[in-house]
Amino acid sequence: xxxxxxxxxxxxxxxxxxxxxxxxxxxxxxxxxxxxxxxxxxxxxxxxxxxxxxxxxxxxxxxxxxxxxxxxxxxxxxxxxxxxxxxxxxxxxxxxxxxxxxxxxxxxxxxxxxxxxxxxxxxxxxxxxxxxxxxxxxxxxxxxxxxxxxxxxxxxxxxxxxxxxxxxxxxxxxxxxxxxxxxxxxxxxxxxxxxxxxxxxxxxxxxxxxxxxxxxxxxxxxxxxxxxxxxxxxxxxxxxxxxxxxxxxxxxxxxxxxxxxxxxxxxxxxxxxxxxxxxxxxxxxxxxxxxxxxxxxxxxxxxxxxxxxxxxxxxxxxxxxxxxxx
Length: 326
Prior knowledge:
This protein is mainly alpha-helical. It folds into three domains: about 5-145, no CATH class; about 170-220, no CATH class; about 230-320, no CATH class.
């Protein structure tokens, strides 16, 4: 298979991290969770660096020092802050190619810290320390992809944000109708109206998307039910809904009454902006509770509705249960 992507296969070192389980109840517990996740990558790459790299070499010294601290669970905050920098430095020295970093659900620990009441202390370490030292001006970094539901609130260089309304990448996430049909047919299942009513309805730009997680679980279990995973974002939404002002609650009443609502929203939500209505509507869209069916970017007006039965059930449990609609 002679393509540009095939030629690049296995040609660039990749560091993959997921912070979805970094949900400790304290500042130190979350940092321990992050250290454990980073240790996985250190251990993976150390399998060849231990035997082939010069442990005393300038580019590898801090890597092996940090590896030892991570393994013994004795890493201090400074080394944790620079741990990705040291890892990329070693990988670039060894391979001669700047690595790619994939950081999934980067904001799970940030949301947890926000809900736990130690947001200021944690974000000082995380945004002003860890992310900055990992990515800002790092000469050993090739590219980085950071995913999350909230805005990356730090001064990183050359960062580009892609939201759920981005046309450029909308065809590459989730399953469209034909993909969902083919998947279910493989498992001797039909893409019926009931299945579509439960899992279809999301719009990424102008492309209709089925919830991929739910379709995969339905294919495995053959049971039509809610497969949405409870996350810390649900608690953030609950708290924000309770604190929201009249304009949001008025729009919520209209959404329930008419099954759609026309609102101003911002897709790039940060904690400092909550619970302002336009950012809270954006958070609901990003979290999959709502989807945009019509957009007027000139006037920043968006018509949103509940995409499917699965989202409706979660919406009733997370949002409506914390709202007075009298």
